[in-house]
Amino acid sequence: MKNSTGKPGEIVVVIPKATWEGEAGDTIFHFLAQPVADLPQEEPMLNVVHIPPQAFGEIFKTGRNLLLTKINPSVKEPKITIQRNVWAKPQIIVSVQAPNEKSFTDFFAKKGNDIVSIFVKEERNRLMKMYADRKFKNDAVAERMAKEHHFTLNVPKGFVVSVDTTNFVWIRYETPNISQDVIAYWYPYTSDSTFTRNYLLNKRDSVLKKNVPGPDPGTYMMTERQIPTLFRAFKLNGNYTAMLRGLWKVHGDFMGGPFVSISTLDPIRGRVLTLEGFVYAPKKDKRELMRQVEAMIYSVRFPDQKKNDKINRMAEMGNDTSAPPVDSVETK
Question: E-strand spans in the chain?
Answer without folding.
Answer: 10-14, 47-51, 65-71, 79-84, 92-98, 160-164, 168-174, 179-188, 220-223, 230-236, 239-251, 256-266, 271-280
